[in-house]
Amino acid sequence: MTSQPLVTAVIPCFNAEATLGRAIDSVRRQGYPAIEIVAVDDGSRDGTPALLRQQEVLGVRVITQPNGGVPVARNTGIAAARGEFLAFLDADDEWHSDKLARQMSILASHPGMVLIGCWAEVVGLDGSRRKVNASREPPVGTEAWRTMLHHSFYNPSELVARTEVARRIGGFVTTMRAGEEDQDFCIRMALKGEIGFVDAVLATMYQQPNSLSRTHFSREHETVLPMILSHCQALAPRLSRAELRHILGARYSQIGRNVYAGSPAIGLRLLARAICYGAEPFGNLRYLATAAPWSRRLKRWLKLGPR
After folding, report:
1. Eight-state DSSP code of residue 238
2. Which of 80, 145, 157, 245 has the most CB atoms within 10 Å of its CB?
3. Which of 126, 133, 128, 193 is nearest to 158 (CA)?
């Protein structure tokens, strides 16, 4: 027995037979002793249910539901959690063995802290490794929501949250299905208290051959941008005009570049808005000059020579 607070590891699963065992093993390797594992099978059609039946014998709490998407599965885990804290882990990610011990040593001793993150690394299909969001500022402190409006940072597998606060805000918004629900959850948590951070890589994410991240990037003008604009409108009384321009400029710039390759007209419009807000005017103009389809064709023509 231990007097340390119980942490519920919430693992949403959908057709995850190839990676789920690795994720669960990484929870079992934690140096922090007070953990329960809740795995939510979100209507898998592969060998995931059979794998979970084996894990259930080993103490994993398994919940099976019709397919509703990752936000629904996470909310099911939040509702079922017995722990005072929630630690989210996607079924294709894994934790380093000291992750929970390092985060809980901070979170459990700071009653005003509602959420804590860390760095993560991603392993590419070619085996290369890189730090996720390495060039971005980690949102920390009691005003972290301001930084979260400016740019995305945290991935669910990096996070530990207070269960009571996560339930109080309603968990994840289930109508958000393209990745924006993670940013939205973090912003709403940050509005309830302090955000902490461990300055170390404590989680590993693995790029998957059928990853939807590129598709999500191409739709951010329809998903992430409306969510951010809605938060900015609600929080406008707490934001200065200069701060609001800084936030909107950064978001139009980031999303415009992500969208541009698939939808040049939309990307151009978003980048024009970013420039109007004063966000990297020369950088965005240079991006347009080098990323435009005609620019790429010209470079190929110059490289190959006229025919």
Report:
1. G
2. 157
3. 133
Max CA pair span of the chain: 77
Query: Does 193 or 289 have the greater pLDDT score?
Result: 193
Q: Compute the C-alpha angle 91/159/146, nearest 5°.
A: 130
DSSP sequence for 32-77: ---EEEEEEEES--SSHHHHHHHHHHTT-EEEEE----HHHHHHHH
Measured distance CA(68)–CA(177) in Å, rounded: 10
Q: What is the per-residue pLDDT across 19-69, written as a single tens digit (0 to 9) for each?
A: 999 999 999 999 999 999 999 999 999 999 999 999 999 999 999 999 999
Query: CA-to-CA distance for 243 and 301, rounded, in angstroms?
Result: 44
- How many CB atoms neighbour CB 55 within 10 A? 18
- Give me the mean pLDDT over the 155-176 stretch: 97
Distance CA 38, CA 117 (A): 20
CA distance 63 to 41: 6
Contact in structure between 198 and 116 (CB atoms under 8 Å) = yes
Backbone angles phi, psi at 294, to 5 degrees: -65, -30
Write the DSSP symbol of residue 118.
Answer: E
Split at pLDDT 50, 70, 90, the class of 298 is very low
What percent of the chain is predicted at pLDDT more than 90?
Answer: 84
What single-letter amino acid sits at 236?
A
